[in-house]
Amino acid sequence: LGIIQVLPSSISKLKHLRYLEVSRTEIQALPDSITKLYNLQTLRLLSCPSLKVLPREFRKLISLRHLYMDDDEEKRKLMPMQIGKLTCLQTLPFFVVGQDNGCQIEELGCLSNLRGELKIYHLEHVRNREEAQKGNLSRNSNIYLLKFHWNEEREEETNNDEDVLEGLKPHENLKSLTIENFKGGKFPSWVMMMNREPHLHNLVKIKLVNCNKCEQMPTMGHLQSLKVVEIDGM
């Protein structure tokens, strides 16, 4: 790891900067002035174990297309507020659904340019199917990998997982699907009918982790592209 711990606030003077990488450093925070880099398109923050905070007005990086961060519990706490304002985003390592003043899943609906992989955490904070549908996942044809994750340690008395997952129906171009800590008694219709053309006919991998309340497995026999099935804790 590098010994760099601080970026100078004067970095904001680099008005034409489009690419910034501070990976593998001991940087603890990004200066607030970085939000003045209106032309910044790529920000890489990989392997930064000391990074504890992102600028409060991160949403002002209106040209940002690619954000790279490690997908771990500590970095998920840094989820920028109002990330839905960054409508140019194509690469996002994860999306954390917040409570109350945190990021709401409807902000995903504003990020129509996302592509590649998308991992969504804390789905227990989504209240119902209608709210989940505001994420507009069914309209995003460029996401090939989706991970749906609920917190394992939560009150099951307020379980609405079936309703929420029904509203998270993805686009048929999806190739990899992971569902983790889902506590519904049954999978929603779009999961149970995966084998019906044309929905999810491109699926190559499906992973079901700790979905131990489900009493029935989805039918997969007609998914001709399917190569990997992982079932853990059912």
Structure write-up:
With 234 residues, this protein is mainly beta. It has two domains: 1-71, Alpha-Beta Horseshoe (Leucine-rich repeat, LRR (right-handed beta-alpha superhelix)); 94-232, Alpha-Beta Horseshoe (Leucine-rich repeat, LRR (right-handed beta-alpha superhelix)), CATH 3.80.10. 8% of the residues lie in helices and 18% in strands. It has four helices and nine strands, in the order βββαββαβαβαββ. The protein has helices at 73-76, 129-133, 161-166, 189-192, and strands at 19-21, 42-45, 66-69, 95-96, 116-121, 143-149, 176-180, 205-209, 228-232. The protein has a six-stranded parallel beta sheet, with no helix packed on it. A three-stranded parallel beta sheet has the order 1-2-3, with no helix packed on it. Strand 7 (176-180), helix 4 and strand 8 (205-209) form a beta-alpha-beta unit. The longest helix is centred in the C-terminal third of the chain and has 6 residues, at 161-166. The radius of gyration is 19 Å and the shape is elongated. The protein starts with 18 loop residues before the first strand and ends with a strand. 30% of the residues are buried. The model has no long low-confidence stretch (mean pLDDT 91). It comes from Davidia involucrata. InterPro entries: LRR_dom_sf, LRR_R13L1-DRL21. This is Putative Cc-nbs-lrr resistance protein. Residues 105-234 form the R13L1/DRL21-like LRR repeat region domain.
